[in-house]
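Protocol step 4 of 5: obtain the predicted structure for the target chain.
Materials: sequence only (see below). No template structures provided, no constraints applied. The aim of this step is simply to have a reference model before the mutagenesis design in step 5. Sequence pasted as it appears in the construct record:
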Amino acid sequence: MKLSNIISLLNAKPLNNFDMEVNIENACGADLLSDVLAAKYDKSLLLTGLTNIQVIRTAEISDIKAIIFVRGKKPENEVISLADRLSISLMTTSYSMYAACGILYNGGLSPGDIQ
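Step 4 output (structure tokens):
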């Protein structure tokens, strides 16, 4: 699913500049970063309520291409700047994590083979 479709489904607002045509193959929702690090992600989207710098570092290690901050949360400028340098797309949505995950699943985005 293209990031442009994800933005449309979640009424998300981009927080940095990125290619809207990047293809995302699956998604996960997590606030426990150790859970994210324990699984293998590739071309994935992370939905989270955490807005700290560790979220970006975790995405970098896990090869996560995009992050959506749920519940309207927005990270500090230093977090956005780091994501820019690492080419990680950032967005925010007013939906809860539960609702956002359900909308993406119903929209056709796979949870992948993540265990």
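Step 4 remarks: Strands lie at 13-14, 26-29, 44-48, 64-69, 89-92. The CA atoms of residues 79 and 85 lie 10 Å apart.
Proceed to step 5.
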